[in-house]
Design a protein that fits this description.
mainly alpha; binds iron/sulfur cluster; Endonuclease III, domain 1
Length: 262
């Protein structure tokens, strides 16, 4: 029985096998994949994830060292001076709303969880500023509980790969989760997001410089010609990614290596 893929020719088993191959290719392509928000505990990750809404991880990482030093515990956010907190997080945008979320998060943690971030999805999603996506990030990266993070990159890529036709993030999470081993969910999420930021961009994916060409039904969405595609690779490992795709690394311009990954 086929369920969510728009491909009429591919069986569920065929899709699962292709998904696993995609997973292995991503593991090879992105050995450096990790949570790109700097943190050393669950509270810091929760705070960084709230700040990352409509903001690059890089910008968040510039703000958080000072923030984490000033507010080391949930009680510190609960009793924060609003103006001071707003100033600290201003560079991440939407700083008034985010300040609100951080103060209310601190208060809820103090009132209901003894100041600790809980390690269960059902508890996490009741906290201010924490939706299911954020909760899965926290579970996967601070508690070692496997979780799939369906962000904008993840959605775009699993659609391009036709692993699911679902559009609701929770349904995507379940549909894609069923294709992979649960223990792989967290790292899979990082690798998919890495691929979306460095290779399979929203507007112009680097199809001709991608290691997934044989597994991807959307090959050709972006330039397939090597020189044009190599220019689209991004990040410090852009040249390694070109080599992995069988291209001359010199086709990748210096600015592509230096560019900030969104
Ligand atoms: S072949 Fe193109 S559309 Fe498919 S994953 Fe690679 S970059 Fe994305």
């Amino acid at each position: 029985m086929t369920t969510s893929s728009p491909s009429v020719a591919e069986t569920d088993l065929g899709r699962k096998r292709r998904a696993r191959r995609i997973g292995r290719a991503l593991t090879d392509a992105h050995p450096d994949a990790h949570c790109e928000l700097d943190h050393s505990n669950a509270l810091e990750l929760a705070v960084a994830t709230i700040l990352s809404a409509q903001c690059t991880d890089k910008r968040v990482n510039e703000v958080t060292p000072k923030l984490f030093a000033r507010y080391p515990g949930a009680a510190d956010y609960a009793g924060a001076d609003r103006t001071e907190l707003e100033e600290l997080i201003r560079p991440t945008g939407f700083f008034r709303n985010k300040t609100d979320s951080l103060i209310r998060l601190g208060q809820a943690l103090v009132e209901r969880y003894d100041g600790q971030v809980p390690g269960r999805l059902t508890d996490l999603v009741t906290l201010p500023g924490i939706g299911r996506k954020t909760a899965n990030v926290i579970l996967g990266n601070a508690f070692g509980v496997p979780g799939i993070t369906v962000d904008t990159h993840f959605q775009r890529l699993v659609h391009r790969w036709r692993l699911t036709a679902e559009t609701d993030p929770v349904k995507i999470e379940h549909a894609v989760g069923a294709l992979f081993e649960k223990r792989d969910w967290t790292m899979l999420s990082h690798r998919v997001i890495f691929h979306g930021r460095r290779v399979c961009h929203a507007r112009k994916p680097a199809c001709g410089a991608c290691t997934l060409t044989k597994l991807c039904p959307s090959y050709g969405t972006g330039p397939t010609e090597p020189a044009a595609a190599a220019k689209l690779l991004k990040g410090p490992r852009a040249r390694d990614l070109a080599v992995a795709a069988g291209l001359d690394p010199d086709l990748v311009p210096a600015q592509a290596v230096a560019v900030e990954v969104p």
